[in-house]
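To whoever is covering the structure queue this week,

Two jobs came back overnight. Logging them here so there's a record in the thread.

Job A:
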Amino acid sequence: MGKKLSIFLKSFLAILFFYCSVSYGAEKGLYIKDGHFYKDNKLVNAHGINYFNVFLRINNAAVEGKADDLSWKRGLEILSENKVPFIRFSAFPFYPIDWKLYFEDKEAYFSNLDKVVREAERLNIGLIPSIFWVHHTLQDLLKEPVNAIGNENSKTRIFMRTYAREVITRYKDSPAIWGWEFGNEFALVCDLPGEKSGLPIAIPALGMPATRSKSDKLKREEVYPAYIEFAKIAKDLDKSRPVFTGDAIIRSSAYNNRYNNTRDKDSIDESEIMLREDNPDPIDTITIHAYKELMLAFKWSNNISDSFLFAKRVSEKTKKPIFVGEWGIPNSMEESANKKDMEEMVASIKAANIQLSAVWVFDLKDHDTGPKWSISPDNNRNIYFKKLKELNKVE
């Protein structure tokens, strides 16, 4: 009897160990293995859309004392109907005045963000939240110069730590979350030669200062430590999901901007140095935003595809997979030149075997540039839904 019990106990413990190992070893959401994106133990091929203001619609209505019109919810339903696998969006109120609810009633603020996450879960839509979308909003809010981001003891960086931990801790167990993004195109405004180049706008009515100074210009050496700290926080709280910078593809003169204070165009080797530097460890991905004017500006690039293939080569060398966080061609798709450019962009994504991308932008009408980029089922840019299905290989 004792021998049988011993055999039974050993078998039971072996089974228990197996299931515990599976449970604790399982990766949540998107993850990286051997330099590629995986999900549910399969290589990823997922091409989504930016739904930039899905959360901001709820937040800003609350700040303005208006009722939630639920347009954000209908938007997610439309994307689900069109088999869009994930969205990239801002989890960051755009202007300083839009942060009112966070400071007055933090739980109400996060309950509004909860709505987006829960609805995405219901519809099986992935989420890539961009945590610090605008490069100067927090500094304006906290009455610091923009370059305070480079000071680890500044109010800006202290707040960044707090907010990153709040967001990631609250949602890290949601199956909807695909990854964590730092912000939007911070490096693109860095190191620009000229006294006023790269300075943010100054609109006091929106909570910004009345004027800007040279301390409101950013350098990469000030931004990189914030990237690294964010990635460490994200990896500490969520060990499996990828971390993204949210940057555009580097400028064609990024190396010379940074190291020589000129606008001379970089060699391809210099461009590679900058693409690597803009995605520092422990960030485990390379992010680019693919727009025609940036992709064709390199002196070593003859077409859009050349720039994609360049980024792909750097990705393979670093074993950091590429996220094309934004791509697209503006204005009417009824114009043959725009449609041709769009087709070239899609073909280039395919040719470079890009696993993860998000077209810009779904249903954006309330920003200056919104109308020329906005994609919706009832405008002439709705062809992008068809192109996403083509990239995703779904009907």
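Job B:
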Amino acid sequence: MADFELDPHEVRRAFDHAAASYDAHAVLQREVCDRLLERLDFMKLQPERVLDVGCGTGYGLAHLRERYAAAELCALDLAPAMLHAAQARLPQPHWTQRARALLSPHASPLTHTLCADMERLPLTVNSVNLLWSSLAMQWARDLDATIKGFHRVLAPGGLLVFATFGPDTLKELRTAFAAIDDAPHVNRFVDLHDIGDMLVHAGFSSPVMEMEMLTLTYADLKTLMRDLKGIGAHNAATSRKRGLLGKSAWAKLEQAYETQRLEGRLPATYEVIYGHAWVGDKMQREDGRQVIQFNIDQRRRKQGLA
């Protein structure tokens, strides 16, 4: 969004710093990834090449490697430390296996890592059959351009499967911060319908969009903020205030959040958007008249954290 531009250097720095602590705090991220993986059960696709955009520490990557054992797999992330963690999660082939993979087309394919920005994919046109992205697209500065880039690298008949966050994500924290000042403290997220429109305009066929609300609960605000810091998900807006909150501002923030306590716990809502879309014949002119299916699940799921 124009009034909330993300600083890519800060995003990269934050995720590099969080690579070592990420898995200990990524309860919600693993849950969303599992739900996104379940959606692949209904997709009739045996891809030759799979791209994991925003692979993080490789939780989803390992499952993709197991599911598509014969596919060439590429893990892409902006943060080098995340890529290192993802690579360490996978079984490491012996050097002889690597040599056979290079010499024989029938050898088990390797998994490659690529440190790059999802907005500028360094891949050739029509080079990917499945593009997978679990909770990474919300970090794109220009989501419209990013989705067009996804379409560019996907081959005809290819599939895009993703999960991202919607506008109501961390709404309680945003409300609490509004009691302190008007500066941006919580990242902004794109609406489900706008993402659907972007998919159509990029040339994808009949996007299917779903949404559900997931709620984590916390004993106190410090634990919530520790979780966000632990996964590298902090304010990366170019217009953000630098430095830590002072004691007075922190006290006001705690007080504001306390007004939202429910059943003895502090809620942290996440609006999770799931989507998938196919790539049709790229020689066919797109007229933008595809049908987008929306399935909005408003049921609030609660999961407490100690």
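Note for Job B: The beta strands are 49-53, 72-77, 111-115, 128-134, 154-165, 204-218, 266-279, 293-304.

Please reply-all if you pick these up so we don't duplicate work.
Q.
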